[in-house]
Specification:
Elements lengths: L3 H53 L19 E4 L6 E6 L15 E9 L7 E8 L12 E7 L2 E10 L4 E3 L2 E2 L12 E9 L5 E9 L12
Antiparallel strand pairs: 1-2, 1-8, 2-3, 3-4, 4-5, 6-7, 6-9, 9-10
Length: 219
């Protein structure tokens, strides 16, 4: 048999070992959760960058625009706006999802910032795409808006003017002083906070294929 002291000593040792193992497992679980969140966050940012890059590369402007028209159907307008720039452009990649509605293979895509509806301290990168190109205020053209990348610090676009051989912070093909061609490259820089609240910056470069005006007439 065992004495009471021996039993109590064995139980104390078992409790000590169990506490050590539990602490180790708890720390491993926290580390695993943190790594998974970091990977998920990084994946979200990379997907957003890849999507913007692919879409910008399909941008175009048409030469079949009414001269002197107040609104244009095709455009490429990049505006420096605080920490998150705005970009709006016409592109060839729209997918028709509704057979019973007027949609086209061309549309306007816009990137811009909006405060998160649940936490006004958080800023989301938004994406809006119209269903077709129309000669009216782009904000009044029917379309869909959703979050492209949540909780970002800054999104900056730079545009390479191949004729002047310089990078520009803004670009516009509309208005009296608008250029009549597109930049050959668009550099995208997206900054966000990781799980340790450290700033991380990802960059990508889109190479636009059709820099000159095309003869395509938007439907």
């Amino acid at each position: 048999g065992f004495t009471l002291i021996e039993v109590m000593l064995a139980m104390a040792i078992m409790a000590f070992v169990t506490a050590l193992l539990w602490g180790s497992f708890a720390q491993m679980s926290k580390t695993k959760t943190r790594v998974e969140k970091t990977q998920e966050r990084t994946h979200t940012v990379r997907v957003a960058l890849m999507r913007m890059t692919r879409e910008i590369e399909m941008a175009f402007i048409s030469e079949n625009e009414q001269s002197g028209a107040e609104e244009r159907r095709t455009m490429f307008v990049g505006t420096a706006s605080g920490s998150i720039d705005k970009l709006r452009f016409s592109w060839f990649g729209h997918q028709r999802l509704r057979a019973d509605r007027p949609e086209s293979d061309t549309a306007l895509v816009s990137y811009f910032a909006e405060p998160d509806p649940e936490d006004r301290m958080v800023t989301n990168l938004m994406r809006r795409e119209t269903r077709r190109l129309e000669t009216k205020d782009p904000d009044r053209i029917p379309g869909e808006t959703y979050i492209l990348c949540p909780d970002v610090i800054s999104v900056k676009f730079s545009y390479y003017d191949f004729k002047k051989k310089e990078w520009k912070e803004e670009w516009t093909t509309t208005g009296a002083d608008g250029v009549q061609y597109l930049p050959t490259q668009v550099r995208i820089s997206l900054k966000f906070l990781d799980e340790r609240r450290q700033e991380v910056t990802f960059t990508s470069t889109a190479r636009i294929q059709m820099t000159e005006r095309v003869s395509y007439r938007p439907a």
